[in-house]
């Protein structure tokens, strides 16, 4: 028994050592020329939210685990809703950290706490602050998971004090409301208030656990002819005023909520990651990264409205098309940027991040 236990221990140690080496290699690929301001030295990154931030938490029946997702990074489907890296990877890069391990991946590993060195990603594609028409833990449950780790002494108070948090809310709550209520938008503003109020509760709770700096995304411009999901029935050309006003109202309420939270808390720990401005800048080709026209046309697209990127028919035949050069497309599928799209967004966000991640 002693020999067997020793062998198991050695295998576990070797496993963790190899994972550490592989993680370092991944970071070398991912990290190319980090831009880390000298006054930013956080120890860990804690991520909450949806598919814009998820790096592999959804179960393997989800589309992000199917080809051709992940073809540019890590070279195969790995749970990212893109052909490669997503916004989390670029935020981690900015902070000089490895992209934190997905919580579900960590739970299934035998290596334990060593894999939490860079923090944890709790984000789960398709979720929101409330339950949505997608499955998966909402943001409250995601924060519960961090609390469980704290109770299990996976992190110290100092770990949290020297950490930052990235919170993504891209609109799954809103789409669920619209899908449930059809064309009836009378109660939409009231619902948006409820969403933002719950988001503010979540932000305050994350800060209460000890995280000292928390960035939360505003809604991207999916009402302004700038998200393919909204415009796919019009060949990615027509806008929708209802969606535009929805986004503007949400972002205004979020701005007010963040100001209120900062007034109630010393050191102004909360700030907005402005996806509206950064998406708009990237899609209008205002930065150094240029995209082909029409910018809204996704690289990977179902052959008809009943199919999506990664779809196969009953015989295993592909029911989608892929563009020749994913780097030429801002969007990977009808809802998510490509790796190059996220790189352009990150480029537009750097000044935003430098302004607020400044307290170290």
UniProtKB/TrEMBL annotation:
<comment type="similarity">
    <text>Belongs to the 'GDSL' lipolytic enzyme family.</text>
</comment>
<keyword id="KW-0443">Lipid metabolism</keyword>
<keyword id="KW-0442">Lipid degradation</keyword>
<dbReference type="InterPro" id="IPR001087">
    <property type="entry name" value="GDSL"/>
</dbReference>
<keyword id="KW-0732">Signal</keyword>
<feature type="signal peptide">
    <location>
        <begin position="1"/>
        <end position="31"/>
    </location>
</feature>
<dbReference type="GO" id="GO:0016788">
    <property type="term" value="F:hydrolase activity, acting on ester bonds"/>
</dbReference>
<dbReference type="InterPro" id="IPR036514">
    <property type="entry name" value="SGNH_hydro_sf"/>
</dbReference>
<dbReference type="GO" id="GO:0016042">
    <property type="term" value="P:lipid catabolic process"/>
</dbReference>
<dbReference type="Pfam" id="PF00657">
    <property type="entry name" value="Lipase_GDSL"/>
</dbReference>
<protein>
    <recommendedName>
        <fullName>GDSL esterase/lipase At5g03610-like</fullName>
    </recommendedName>
</protein>
<keyword id="KW-0378">Hydrolase</keyword>
